[in-house]
Design a protein that fits this description.
14 strands, about 50% helix, single chain, binds flavin-adenine dinucleotide, Butyryl-CoA Dehydrogenase, subunit A, domain 3, globular, alpha+beta
Length: about 500
């Protein structure tokens, strides 16, 4: 049983076969040596490091339901509401430590979603996907793998369904079925941490119809499988890290950590049967998407809150360095930032506390509350960022380069004119402003803002689910019964009758 540490994780990445990775117009021969990749690997490595930290080990690890052994919680099939809550607390902790995306949630959420979905497919079709997936899950936790969750297709014309696209590869699909496996083609967009992963779990991105069986494919692939090409995502201010000197370290805002997204192209990739977990079962594509989306919407009630903690800390610190920390409106704005951030955390905890056990045995979040959580995440970090920029002041975007700060010709001028609160260190002020710029406009904003908006589905996806799950008909029964009756017995009877009518209408026909 492996519980890797950060060093072992880095070594395990280096042992992968050469991968086809492009960044900035060039193929990377040694991806792990590129500063952008290194910063993103550092963020993932934290998930290993903290699992060995005596202070955090209990939260970062769990007892496996498959083997009984201690595993990293990022590889764990949730066994209770308490497990779901600990997942959110763990994500907040790691978010606080790196202030960016640590890339490991998506695989954890795909693990739990596929465990449940394969169980349901087998129940209906007597297939053996669940047994295969159990073997994968056991391998994932015992090897402590990072697993990329590859759901989002590139989708071409959004007004058309997969089978209606003029190029059928706009959604990943099976192009050949052989006795020993399938061949897949297509691309997955925005793949978080894909290049830092050991394996990839491929899933469909939408519910599918009868003529879309080739798109109903879920499978596992080693990240270094032949036929996969990765094209690294460009991010705002990403060149700041590349100088490799003291000035670029200051100007990058957060020199050590970064996130990672890539476009991932599957050019006729072979998947052996033992790694196929759905092939053509269109009726279950929607279930798999809903399971994954709910788990992932819960995740954001933890990871974004950790980054919010960094944003609030930065607001309080820059206020102090600017000499305004006692001003009433600044204190009130920091209270508001905390209120918003803790509301997100409350949603993450609530959908976990209301979790239920699935027929497959693992635990599932309350999907309505998970969608409410993510809908709030599409808004509150933006408001927190707005308040942070308000408190920071305009210097955040007009600050001279750190090269000028370090240049003897301009250093004294800048030290004099960039001074802040009496007795404060101007370099600390510069560094804090760069961190704020990074979090709200630079690479960090990818993880804190845009990922909050679109990751785990754009806002409208949550509104559709809230509309579906909120049970407005039941609420109408309460309102109608209270309005129509003036006596207690009448109200109670009307509610009982109304609810019974709703249940009968929803019951499957005999
Ligand atoms: C930083 C980041 C990390 C991510 N990480 C991962 C990952 O690791 N794995 C993964 O699988 N995915 C990942 N995603 C993808 C994420 O789930 C998608 O961005 C999201 O589902 C939206 O899809 P899209 O980006 O293609 O935008 P679009 O689907 O193009 O949406 C853009 C807008 O168009 C609207 N729209 C789209 N289609 C329709 C339609 N048919 N009718 C009406 N309106 C429509 C949407 O509501 C939205 O307002 C990540 C995204 C980001 C930004």
């Amino acid at each position: 049983m492996t519980l890797m540490n950060a060093h072992q994780y880095r070594e395990s990445l280096a042992r992968r076969r050469p991968m086809k990775i492009y960044l900035d117009g060039k193929r990377l021969e040694n991806p792990l040596e590129h500063p952008s990749v290194q910063a993103s690997v550092n963020s993932v490595a934290l998930t290993y490091e903290l699992a060995h930290d005596p202070e955090h080990r209990a939260l970062m690890t769990a007892r496996s339901a498959l083997s009984g052994e201690t595993v990293n919680r990022f590889c764990h099939l949730h066994q209770s509401s308490a497990d779901l809550i600990d997942k959110v607390r763990m994500q907040r902790l790691v978010g606080q430590r790196c202030g960016t995306c640590f890339q490991r949630c998506v695989g954890l959420d795909a693990l739990n979603a596929l465990f449940a979905a394969t169980f349901e497919i087998d129940r209906k079709f007597a297939t053996n996907y669940h047994e295969r997936f159990r073997a994968f899950a056991l391998a994932m936790e015992s090897n402590d793998w990072i697993v990329d969750g590859a759901m989002t297709d590139v989708k071409g014309d959004r007004s058309r369904r997969p089978a209606e696209q003029s190029d059928p590869d706009m959604y990943l699909r099976v192009v050949e079925r052989r006795a020993d496996g399938v061949v897949i083609r297509g691309a997955k967009a925005h793949q978080t941490g894909a290049i830092n992963s050991h394996w990839v779990l491929v899933m469909p991105t939408v519910a599918l119809r009868d003529d879309e069986g080739d798109y109903a494919i879920a499978c596992a692939l080693p990240a270094d499988a032949e036929g996969i090409t990765y094209i690294y995502g460009r991010q705002s201010c990403d060149e700041r890290k590349l100088g490799g000197d003291a000035a670029s370290a200051i100007d990058s805002g957060s020199a050590c950590y970064g996130g990672q997204e890539a476009l991932m192209i599957f050019d006729d990739v072979f998947v052996p049967n033992e790694s196929v977990f759905m092939d053509g079962e269109i009726a279950f594509a929607g279930l798999l998407v809903d399971l994954f989306a709910s788990y992932h919407r819960q995740s954001y009630g933890g990871c974004k809150v950790g980054k919010g903690d960094v944003a609030i800390g930065a607001a309080a610190t820059i206020a102090q360095l600017n000499g305004v920390e006692r001003a009433a409106h600044i204190r009130d704005k920091i209270i508001e930032m905390n209120h918003l951030n803790e509301t997100l955390f409350a949603c993450g905890i609530a959908c976990s506390a209301n979790g239920t056990q699935l027929p497959a045995g693992n635990w599932f979040v309350d999907p309505l509350l998970a969608n409410v959580c993510k809908q709030n995440v599409t808004r509150f970090p933006y408001e927190i960022a707005r308040l942070l920029q308000d408190i920071a002041g305009g210097l955040m975007v007009t600050l001279p380069s750190a090269k000028d700060w370090l240049n003897p010709e301009t250093a004294a001028l800048l030290r004099k004119y960039l001074a802040g609160a009496e007795g404060s260190d101007p370099e600390e002020r510069i560094r804090m402003l760069r961190l704020i710029e990074n979090l709200t406009m630079g690479r960090g904003a990818v993880a804190y803002l845009t990922e909050s908006m679109h990751g785990a589905g754009s806002p409208q996806a949550q509104r559709i689910m809230i509309g579906r799950l909120a049970n407005v008909d039941e609420k109408k029964v309460y309102a109608r019964s209270l309005a129509a009756h003036d006596d207690l017995e009448g109200v109670e009877a009307a509610i009982r009758t109304g609810l019974a009518g709703l249940r009968a209408a929803k019951a499957p026909a005999a």
